[in-house]
Amino acid sequence: MDLLDLIKKRRSIKKFKQKPVERESLLNLIETACFSHSICNRQNIRYWVVQDPAKVDFVYQHSSLGWVIDGEDGLTDEKFAPPAYIAVTVPGSASHADYADAGAAFQNMALMSLQTQLGLFWIHAFSEEILKSFLNLPEEQTIIALIAVGHPAESPVAINIDPVDADKFFNLKDKAQKVPKLKTKYIVSWR
Ligand SMILES: Cc1cc2nc3c(=O)[nH]c(=O)nc-3n(C[C@H](O)[C@H](O)[C@H](O)COP(=O)(O)O)c2cc1C
């Protein structure tokens, strides 16, 4: 597939089939992260894969798949819960550069996931201290992101819109969510 088409096709996948992801496929994703750019090429980021169902469930209970701007329900439903997570860590407190490195690595993984028919998304909303302790991570590591990975159970598509349209769905001034609803005139008829 053409690179631009591939980039356009990448979407955050938040609904997953209840099917395990093979270790090889997860390794394959992380291998793409090895080749991403990194400040001073210091390659500080470490990836902690969680596949054991009991542990995956604990991570699910302590992270959020939320933030829905279209009002669609079911995104947090357990029947679509991710079958695997990757905790992304850096040593010490996270810097802007760490997040930049993580973003580049994530983009590689996200593009690779398309080739391997996987889906993933970045989770920023999680309980860092609880998960760090639960996963028994080294004291000096800080979790800066969770990546949920699995076989997609949805096929979101991106559409190009103008800024004026964006405001119809998400108010950028006060961050208020707007749920699109049909105007009455479109749903009522007089007989
Ligand atoms: C830094 C970062 C943090 C994010 N954190 C969350 C999160 O905590 N929960 C969530 O549901 N989505 C999270 N997302 C996913 C965004 O909601 C998603 O990227 C956005 O809706 C655009 O969709 P797209 O990735 O398909 O373009 C995060 C994305 C980024 C880049």
What would your notes on this structure say?
The structure is a single chain. A 4-stranded antiparallel beta sheet has the order 1-2-4-3, with helices on both faces. Strands 5-6 form a two-stranded antiparallel ribbon. The protein starts with a helix and ends with a helix. It has helices at 3-9, 23-34, 53-61, 96-115, 128-134, 163-169, 184-187, and strands at residues 46-50, 84-91, 119-123, 141-150, 170-171, 176-177. It is 35% helix and 17% strand. The chain is globular and about 70 Å long. The chain is α+β, with helices and mostly antiparallel strands. It has one domain (3-156): NADH Oxidase, CATH 3.40.109. The structure holds flavin mononucleotide. Flavin mononucleotide binds at residues 11-12, 14, 64-67, 121-125, 156. Flavin mononucleotide is lined by residues 11-12, 14, 64-67, 121-125, 156.
In short:
By secondary structure, the protein is α+β, with helices and mostly antiparallel strands.
List keywords for this structure.
7 helices; 191 residues; 4-stranded antiparallel β-sheet; single chain; NADH Oxidase; binds flavin mononucleotide; two-stranded antiparallel ribbon; 35% helix; alpha+beta
